[in-house]
């Protein structure tokens, strides 16, 4: 009986911890798991954003990382893959999130560089700033 009670308690604690991680599931299938809530403004697709990021394939293989390019990346949010445009708009400056991108919201059937066609991707993104 004690093990059943312990199991129920552990399950309740794990559920509460999961719920505490704010998760946005977008109609496109993009999932935004907020790892750290930001306190600044939220960008729009018309903004230029500055981010640190790390991108991995579904098997965990890293294919890109802003550190490999010398630090934060800056780009127009409306001119990147749909997963980024949709997901980063759900973040606030100072926040960090994990974006889970179905292939259709990433590079689809064309693939790019080390990313094979029809690949689901995961990005850890830290939103550092917004510009116009």
TrEMBL record:
Residues 1-19 form the signal peptide. It comes from the Bacteria. The keyword Nucleotide-binding does not apply. One of its GO terms (molecular function) is peptidyl-prolyl cis-trans isomerase activity. It catalyses: [protein]-peptidylproline (omega=180) = [protein]-peptidylproline (omega=0). PROSITE patterns: FKBP_PPIASE. The keyword Lipid metabolism does not apply. Residues 46-131 form the PPIase FKBP-type domain. Its EC number is 5.2.1.8. Pfam families: FKBP_C. InterPro entries: PPIase_dom_sf, PPIase_FKBP_dom. Keywords: Isomerase, Rotamase, Signal. Gene3D superfamilies: 3.10.50.40. PANTHER family: 39 KDA FK506-BINDING NUCLEAR PROTEIN (PTHR43811:SF19), FKBP-TYPE PEPTIDYL-PROLYL CIS-TRANS ISOMERASE FKPA (PTHR43811). PPIases accelerate the folding of proteins. Belongs to the FKBP-type PPIase family. This is Peptidyl-prolyl cis-trans isomerase. It comes from Caballeronia pedi.
